[in-house]
Amino acid sequence: MSHPRILTIHQFEQDIATPEFYCNTFKDHIACHHGTISKPHKHDFYVTVIFTEGEGIHEIDFHTYPIRPGSVFFLKPGQTHHWNYSKNTEGYIFLHSENFYVLEFLSRSLQNFPFYYSAHNTPYLNLNQENIHKMVPYFQLLKREFDAAAILKKQKIIGLIDLIYIDLSRLYLEQAPTDTIKSTTYIKKLRALEKLIENQYLAEKSPAFYADLLNITPKHLNRITQTTLGKTTVALITDRVLLEAKRMLVYSNDSFTNIARHLGYEDYAYFSKLFKQKTGLTPSQFKNTYL
């Protein structure tokens, strides 16, 4: 079994007036791209989906979420996902690259929206009927604008995306724990930490290493991760290692020993013990259960 395919935004964009952007109804999206997206895959772009009809499940990085009317999903580049849904499933989907958004708003970042600012924030939002009626017209207008040939088309599309993200952020924070931290300083440090972990986790698993790169003490770094996510720095590093371990166990044919070695553990017994401690299953049990 091979690693999940990485899809690019250029496989979906359809309009030279709005490169690096795509929008469609979910039903038509599936009809056009079912062969491309029917298996677990990753993207190099951002995805937002809202469901208005149907049911099913959506698995994102080995976490399973329900598909039902009012389900909204936010996917960041690099996440592995796939879905299983009923034939009557309806909704809207739009995709865009990071550049498509940030080049228009040079003073903003997509990571300022709560569903994007950390890989540990849930990519799922459940809307009630009132909020479904509030949000769906935005998606419908976005689809109409994408299909039209009007002046200032790109500017209006980006404006609509911004409105969608702002309103969904407000609803997202209403459903988040009441102690959700919105400190800009902490969020920036957390974002920098996650980027460093993404680049270094195979070789470096010490909180002190990352604290040194961020020019803060390990104690302060731990305070940031505990305050923003309720997790220790060690837990964040371990979570990233275990996510990659799960991906390799399921999507590659490497031996368990080679997988452990790739992840920085020469002692497979130690790696297996750590994996079971965190997931409740041995690597072998996890692979067999998942498949």
Question: How does this structure look, described?
Answer:
This protein is an alpha+beta fold. It folds into two domains: 5-175, Jelly Rolls, CATH 2.60.120.280; 184-290, Arc Repressor Mutant, subunit A, CATH 1.10.10. 48% of the residues lie in helices and 17% in strands. It is built from eleven helices and ten strands. It has helices at 26-37, 98-102, 129-147, 153-175, 184-200, 207-213, 218-229, 233-251, 256-262, 268-279, 283-290; strands at residues 5-7, 21-25, 41-43, 46-53, 56-60, 63-67, 71-75, 81-85, 90-96, 124-126. The strands form three sheets. A five-stranded antiparallel beta sheet has the order 2-9-4-7-10. A three-stranded antiparallel beta sheet has the order 6-5-8, with no helix packed on it. A two-stranded parallel sheet has the order 1-3. Strand 5 (56-60) and strand 6 (63-67) form a beta hairpin. The termini are close together.
